[in-house]
Amino acid sequence: MFEHLVIFKFNSSLTKEHEQVLLGKLQALKQTIPGIIELSAGINVTEETENRHGYSLGLRVTFESQEALRQYGPHPAHQDFVKALDGVLDNVVVVDYPLTIA
């Protein structure tokens, strides 16, 4: 299995309504893209405000394999989400790693 973590930092042009649309698009990916075992996404509500650094939306996806993760990027549903980021994204951080259960 492979874990895919993403955090998004948006510019000031993003409205709360658009952020909710983006969240909904992320949550819908599980039903659309093969190879996803588990997916969670949400608005950052951390009380550690000094560590937030402007990142307001998080995504965690568990894929059945590294190949499933590779197929995710070019999938049309994922590309639709990427297009929805046009003009509102300041920065994104991505971490992918093989999942080992301790």
What is the fold's blueprint, element by element?
Blueprint lengths: L1 E9 L5 H17 L3 E8 L11 E9 L2 H7 L3 H9 L4 E10 L4
Antiparallel strand pairs: 1-3, 1-4, 2-3
Helix pairs in contact: 1-3
Subunit structure: Homodimer.
Pfam families: Dabb
InterPro entries: Dabb, Dimeric_a/b-barrel, HS1/DABB1-like
Share of residues in strands:
35-45%
Beta strand count: 4
Helicity, as a percent range: 25-40%
**Which runs of at least 5 residues are low in confidence (pLDDT < 50)?**
none
CATH top level?
Alpha Beta
Order of strands side by side in the largest beta sheet?
2-3-1-4
Shape, principal axes of CA atoms: globular
The sequence of SSEs as H and E is EHEEHHE
Q: State the distance separating the first and last CA atoms.
A: 14 Å
Q: What is the count of DSSP helices, taking H or I runs of 4+ residues?
A: 3
Rounded Rg: 14 Å
Tally of individual domains:
1
Mean pLDDT: 94
Provide the descriptors you would attach to this structure in a database record:
102 residues; 35% strand; 3 helices; single chain; Alpha-Beta Plaits; 4-stranded antiparallel sheet
How would you briefly describe this protein structure?
The protein has three helices and four strands. The protein has 102 residues and is of the alpha+beta class. Homodimer.
